[in-house]
């Protein structure tokens, strides 16, 4: 072949390369990288590749093309029941056309300038495929500019029942109003890891007196109760239903459940038992039960945090729930206090006294301070209360005595007064009490005359005694004289 023909073929090749370059499609996304929990799991980027056109000995017909290199680094290792944090880093294409590179023509799918009419309303989405329900997240829409790098974050909540024997894939895509070109998506294979020890999150059912309950907040969004609920009242009990399960590959021994309300400094722990691993068909890998927390009767109205934790030496799981507690009504204070009186009507004489004993029993769980007040006696009597203050712990009792002493000039008859029993300053019971003052007995005898008569009687008695004594002495002297005469 002569030189003129070779020259003609070279010119045709250059022209063809130019035409291909001009007709080549633009690339909107030059590169994409996917990071899972900070580890790079996927990389794809375009690069200039020199093609020798099959004639390596003749560099005059070489050309460059834009080739995408896929970098699926490794399978993604997922932990069930945890959040997967994703970061997607991508680079947009350039604005100006690129028709030559290193002095050679550019052909093929190449970065010759992105579609600048498609720079608005971009978004990134991620989805795990292969699970029965959607595991999906998506960014808000955003605008881009040419030749810039962007980083977007997504989070996927991995279900606890993701089957470790099934195949799953993570799919990441970058989208806009119209279809994008270039490295606009990524596909990563997934391996599901089973932790040696893992306990599923608890869900908690909180019951109130009317049977309504509060839906538990847990990662799966599932719970035993989805009906209404009402505010719990101070002094009431919280019924907590729990289920705890083992999704690990080893048995969990000696599992406990602890419920607490930190703000009220109350908690209770119960023993649950042993949990077999989830592959054990003979023994239980889930257990359920109910425990109770007693809300203090003096708890202030407000929102509190209920924490329920299942734990043993190897693992733990916690469910946190906000609950609302209403203040105790005054009527409820009566329910935790019982009072017994030894009598509300007693007889008394002027100058004497009457005692009324009030036995107070605190049948609630919390301590209370009791006082007793007397009203309506000042006009005719004095009163005394002992002890003046009675503080009782939960499930304890004590006695308060009210002593009423009528005045000397108190009018005989029934005198009514009021005794009030207070718990923590609030009146919980009032009693109408009666003191019956007896009539004074009328003797009709003058006191001075009586004393005179008594003195006279005493004097007569003394005189009589003297006469008797004198007579005895005289009689004894006569007897002795008679004896002396008889001896001579």
Short description:
The chain contains three helices and 30 strands. By secondary structure, the protein is mainly β.
Summary tags:
3 domains, Immunoglobulin-like, mainly beta, 3 helices, single chain, five-stranded mixed beta sheet
Question: What features would you describe in this structure?
Answer:
- With 488 residues, this protein is mainly beta.
- The chain has 3 domains: 3-193, Immunoglobulin-like (Sandwich); 204-328, Immunoglobulins (Immunoglobulin-like, Sandwich); 332-437, Immunoglobulins (Immunoglobulin-like), CATH 2.60.40.
- The protein is built from 3 helices and 30 strands.
- The strands form 6 sheets. Strands 6-7-3-2-1-5-10 form a 7-stranded mixed β-sheet.
- A hairpin with a 4-residue loop joins strand 20 and strand 21 (316-326).
- It starts with a helix and ends with a helix.
- Residues 1-25 and 200-229 have low confidence and may be disordered.
Report the portion of residues in β strands. Answer: over 45%
Show unreliable segments: 1-25, 200-229
Total separate domains: 3
* Chain oligomer state: single chain
Share of residues in helices? 10-25%
Average pLDDT across residues?
76
Shape type: rod-shaped
Distance between the termini: 215 Å
CATH topology of the largest domain: Immunoglobulin-like
Biggest beta-sheet profile: 7 strands, mixed
Secondary-structure class:
mainly beta
């Amino acid at each position: 072949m002569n030189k003129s023909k070779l020259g003609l073929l070279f010119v045709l090749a250059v022209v063809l390369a130019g035409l291909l370059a001009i007709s080549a499609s633009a690339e909107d996304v030059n590169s994409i990288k996917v990071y899972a929990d900070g580890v790079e799991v996927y990389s794809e980027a375009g690069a200039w590749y020199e093609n020798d056109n099959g004639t390596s000995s003749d560099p005059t017909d070489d050309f460059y093309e834009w080739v995408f290199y896929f970098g699926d680094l490794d399978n993604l290792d997922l932990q069930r029941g945890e959040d997967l944090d994703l970061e997607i880093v991508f680079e947009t294409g350039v604005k100006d056309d690129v028709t030559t590179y290193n002095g050679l023509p550019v052909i093929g799918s190449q970065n010759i300038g992105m579609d600048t009419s498609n720079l608005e309303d971009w978004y990134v989405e991620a989805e795990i495929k292969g699970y029965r329900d959607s595991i999906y997240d998506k960014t808000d829409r955003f605008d881009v500019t040419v030749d810039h790098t962007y980083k977007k974050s997504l989070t996927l909540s991995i279900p606890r029942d993701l089957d470790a024997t099934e195949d799953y894939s993570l799919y990441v895509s970058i989208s806009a109003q119209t279809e994008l070109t270039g490295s606009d998506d990524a596909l990563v294979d997934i391996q599901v890891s089973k932790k040696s020890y893992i306990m599923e999150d608890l869900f908690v059912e909180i019951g109130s007196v009317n049977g309504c309950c509060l839906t538990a907040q847990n990662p799966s969004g599932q719970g035993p109760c989805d009906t209404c609920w009402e505010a719990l009242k101070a002094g009431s009990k919280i019924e907590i239903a729990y289920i705890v399960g083992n999704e690990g590959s080893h048995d969990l021994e000696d599992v406990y459940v602890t419920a607490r309300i930190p703000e009220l400094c109350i908690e209770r722990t119960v023993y649950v038992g042993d949990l077999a691993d989830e592959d054990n068909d003979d023994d239980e890998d889930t257990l359920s039960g109910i425990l109770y927390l007693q809300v203090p009767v003096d708890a202030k109205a407000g929102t509190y945090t209920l924490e329920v934790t299942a734990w043993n030496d190897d693992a733990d799981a916690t469910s946190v729930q906000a609950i609302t507690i209403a203040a105790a009504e005054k009527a409820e204070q009566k329910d935790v206090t019982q009072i017994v009186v030894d009598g509300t009507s007693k007889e008394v004489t002027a100058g004497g006294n009457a005692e009324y004993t009030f036995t107070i029993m605190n049948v609630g769980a919390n301590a209370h301070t009791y006082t007793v007040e007397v009203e309506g006696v000042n006009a005719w009597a004095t009163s005394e209360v002992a002890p003046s203050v009675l503080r009782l712990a939960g499930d304890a009792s004590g006695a308060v005595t009210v002593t009423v002493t009528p005045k000397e000039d108190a009018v005989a008859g029934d005198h009514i007064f009021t005794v009030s029993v207070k718990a923590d300053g609030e009146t919980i019971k009032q009693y109408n009490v009666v003191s019956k003052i007896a009539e004074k007995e009328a003797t009709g005898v003058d006191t001075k005359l009586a004393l005179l008569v008594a003195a006279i009687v005493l004097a007569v008695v003394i005189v009589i005694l003297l006469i008797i004594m004198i007579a005895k002495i005289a009689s004894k002297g006569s007897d002795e004289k008679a004896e002396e005469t008889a001896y001579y």
